[in-house]
Specification:
The chain is of the alpha+beta class. The protein has helices spanning 21-34, 50-54, 61-87, 106-112, 148-154, 170-174, 180-194, and strands at residues 38-41, 91-97, 118-123, 140-145. Strands 1-2-4-3 form a 4-stranded mixed sheet, with helices on both faces. Helix 5 runs antiparallel to helix 7 (180-194).
Length: 195
């Protein structure tokens, strides 16, 4: 519909665990082979979430450190892939919750300072994010991208008149799936930027 071809999905649901070096190397080879027009990266945010930080005093510090170190492997690898896309003249879209502490990490700050890279914020209720019959969820999310078309499309703030459903318990997992209207918008804007 948009003149684009689907590429590979490289994540846990497809047997890729980027905590494992070999899986990172294989993914890098696949990306170099496919040369995707738009590469979308959404590393696990659990070690960087506000909720995790609020539970810090009740958890084993060694486990917290191990989770953080593993999370940083994912963040650094994602930044490496974004930079690869950028220097080869292709597009990337990196996503994390707006409140995630990962945004304070040096590799993301460096990436955000590269020419043509911009950060935008979105409330996903603006894209009809609904994971409960009780209503929409706000899910404030920040994105880094080197596509002005995609950035413009994503820069949407809440205009809801009703209270939002809070993402907790099982709803958090359901909210990991991007709303359809957001995906369609990204595809359309990617197509505009390339054709």
């Amino acid at each position: 519909q948009y003149g684009l071809q689907p590429g590979s999905s490289l994540d846990l649901t497809h047997g890729r665990n980027f905590s494992i070096r070999r899986h990172r190397e294989e993914a890098l080879k696949q990306i170099n082979l496919e040369k995707p027009t738009l590469l979308i990266l959404s590393p696990p945010c659990t070690p960087f979430s506000i909720m995790q930080h609020s539970n810090k005093t009740r958890r084993d510090p060694k486990i917290i450190q191990r989770e953080f170190d593993e999370g940083m492997v994912h963040i650094r690898f994602a930044c490496q892939l974004c930079e690869l896309q950028r220097i080869q003249g292709r597009l990337f879209l990196f996503e994390q919750p707006e409140s995630a502490t990962s945004w304070a990490q040096e590799c993301l700050k460096r990436l955000g300072g590269k020419p043509g890279v911009m950060r935008v914020s979105a409330h996903l209720c603006a894209f009809e994010l609904q994971v409960s019959p009780e209503g929409l969820s706000k899910k404030p999310t920040a994105f880094l991208t080197n596509s002005s078309h995609v950035a413009q499309q994503l820069n949407q703030q809440c205009t809801c008149q009703k209270p939002h459903v809070i993402l907790e318990g099982g709803l958090t997992k359901k909210a990991q799936v991007y709303p359809t209207s957001m995906c369609r918008g990204n595809l359309e804007r990617t197509s505009q930027g390339y054709h």
